[in-house]
Amino acid sequence: MKKMPKGKTPSLIGFSNGRPNRVVVQRKSECCRCREDILPGTDCFDIPKKSAGFTRECRHCKGCYEKILNQTQDDLTFLKSL
Q1: Tens digits of per-residue pLDDT, 28-40?
Q2: pTM for the full model?
Q3: Comparing 21 with 15, which gets the higher pLDDT?
């Protein structure tokens, strides 16, 4: 059963410190946002996140990544209208 992510959907503006990468999962992983299992052999997206001088990759499933992209597009649309 998929859990509902908490909080507002993040945007790639000001959220990450690098380009997202599409990755084929080698072993079972968990989505950083919804905590759903990502099974081996499926695609997911690693978004770099820098904190305290270290960079770590937050792994996201396709559904959460699409929501992040939509939020980023909404933020860009808002910034263009200023």
Answers
A1: 999 999 999 999 9
A2: 0.80
A3: 21
Provide the residue ranges of all domains of the chain, joining segments of one domain with +: 21-81
Strand bridging mode 54-60 / 43-51 = antiparallel
Long-range contacts of 64-73 (CB under 8 A, 24+ apart): 64/5, 64/31, 64/32, 64/33, 64/34, 65/20, 67/9, 68/9, 68/10, 68/11, 68/12, 68/15, 68/33, 69/12, 70/9, 71/8, 71/9, 71/10, 71/11, 72/11, 72/12, 72/13
Token pair of 30 as six digits: 């968990």
Residue 16 has pLDDT above 60, yes or no: no
